[in-house]
Design a protein that fits this description.
With 205 residues, this protein is an alpha/beta fold. The protein has one domain: 3-Layer(aba) Sandwich (Cytidine Deaminase, domain 2), CATH 3.40.140.10. 50% of the residues lie in helices and 12% in strands. It contains 9 helices and 5 strands. The chain has helices spanning 13-21, 27-30, 33-37, 41-57, 93-101, 119-127, 145-150, 161-173, 175-204; strands spanning 64-69, 75-80, 109-113, 132-135, 154-157. The protein has a 5-stranded mixed β-sheet with strand order 2-1-3-4-5, sandwiched between helices. The longest helix has 30 residues, at 175-204. The radius of gyration is 18 Å and the shape is globular. The structure holds zinc ion (ZN). It comes from Colwellia psychrerythraea (Vibrio psychroerythus). Keywords: Metal-binding, Zinc. Residues 39-155 form the CMP/dCMP-type deaminase domain. This is CMP/dCMP deaminase zinc-binding protein.
Length: 205
């Protein structure tokens, strides 16, 4: 069967966005192997950022991830943060993509994430033996790259400027949602009460 995207297809934003939105198990209908082999690391990072954008458009946290097979470069899992969409306290871009990939051998895969991994995701990445992690934003958050390298994972930084501005706008727009996603609701109440006491102190000053 002829696929829609082949080696002649231009890797435009629309084409990459279609890949981001299409369910992973349906991708073979859309992409042939020549097209897939022509996708660069930056293209996979663009897809991760387009998934972050999808989450943002749904009112959620803009973080997305894509997992590829190292040999065939086929996408085997992808997803985005669902804190808001699923009322889910810890489903991040990375965990979402890993759940989509299912019970596979992650040592044959690379994971592209639009934002530097949190402690939970970093732990899962080395416990499941992902061979390579590519990080699209170490400007808005960073810290676990050294830990992942210590655990024997190849870590590459490939910053995506659109992803960086998307996340920094989100953080300014919805600071509470950002804190809740990283540290939970308890951190949010501590943060808000410390803000309140700061403003009381400055009122008294
Ligand atoms: Zn995480």
């Amino acid at each position: 069967m002829k696929t829609l995207f082949d080696k002649h297809t231009n890797k435009s934003a629309t084409v990459l966005n279609t890949i981001a939105h299409m369910p992973t198990h349906s991708l073979p209908v859309l992409l042939d192997s020549d097209f897939t082999l022509g996708l660069t690391d930056s293209d996979f990072m663009r897809i991760a950022v387009l998934l972050a954008q999808k989450s943002y458009d749904e009112g959620g946290c803009p973080i997305g991830a894509v997992i590829i097979d190292n040999k065939t470069r086929k996408i085997v899992g992808k997803g985005h943060n669902t804190l808001i969409q699923e009322d889910h306290p810890y489903n991040h871009g990375e965990t979402s993509a890993m759940r989509d990939a299912g019970r596979i051998d992650f040592s044959r895969t690379s994971l592209f994430t639009s934002l530097s991994p949190c402690d939970v995701c970093a732990t899962l990445l080395y416990m499941r033996g992902v061979s390579r992690v590519v990080v699209g934003d170490v400007t808005n958050a960073s810290g676990n790259e050294a830990l992942l390298r210590d655990k024997g994972i190849q870590v590459d930084i490939l910053e995506d400027q659109q992803g960086i501005s998307l996340y920094s706008n989100f953080r300014q727009e919805k600071p509470d949602q950002d804190i809740e996603d990283w540290q939970g609701v308890s951190a949010l109440s501590n943060h808000n009460s410390s803000l309140k006491s700061d403003s009381l102190e400055s009122d008294q000053a």
